[in-house]
Amino acid sequence: MKRIASLIVIVSLLGLSIGCTEYHQQGAGTGAVIGGVSGALIDHRNPWRGGIIGGIIGAVAGATLADISYQASREAAMHDRPVEYRTENGRGIYRAEPVGYNDRTRCKRIHERVWEDDRLVKDQVREICEDRYERRY
């Protein structure tokens, strides 16, 4: 159990150091933890190897998904129209839709939703501001 806990810490730090921006770091860190734990559990003979490989793959996938989310929400805010991305097989859908403007913060509110296999897995409102600061609620 100590080995798995150590592995999670190492992979998490690796994932956090890979990201270029705050959004990439969050996505990479989350992906690294999930991938590291999954890899360690799957590879019974050598959980270190499985955890490291899973952590690296998870970090890359998490950073990529964070980048897609960030770009689409900025695009929806800039053009003031919905943006939708679909995977080639149609099983994954990302949709960013402008829902208003906050005069106090001078930020546009973007409603983000992600579906996987027709199941809603992410539903949040993000504020995209001109000074690149963003709030979530």
Structural write-up:
The structure is a single chain. Helices cover 52% and strands 28% of the residues. Strands 1-2-3-4-5 form a 5-stranded antiparallel sheet, with helices on one face. The protein is of the alpha+beta class. The model has no long low-confidence stretch (mean pLDDT 78). The longest helix is centred in the middle third of the chain and has 33 residues, at 47-79. The chain has 3 helices and 5 strands. The chain has 2 domains: 2-68, no CATH class; 81-136, no CATH class.
Question: Mind sketching the topology for me?
Answer:
Elements lengths: L1 H17 L3 H21 L4 H33 L3 E4 L5 E11 L4 E10 L2 E11 L4 E3 L1
Antiparallel strand pairs: 1-2, 2-3, 3-4, 4-5
Helix pairs in contact: 1-2, 1-3, 2-3
At a glance:
By secondary structure, this protein is of the alpha+beta class.
The tally of beta strands, per DSSP, is 5
Distance between the termini: 36 Å
Question: How do the strands line up in the largest sheet?
Answer: 1-2-3-4-5
Structural class: alpha+beta
Comma- or semicolon-separated keywords:
alpha+beta; 5-stranded antiparallel sheet; elongated; 3 helices; 137 residues
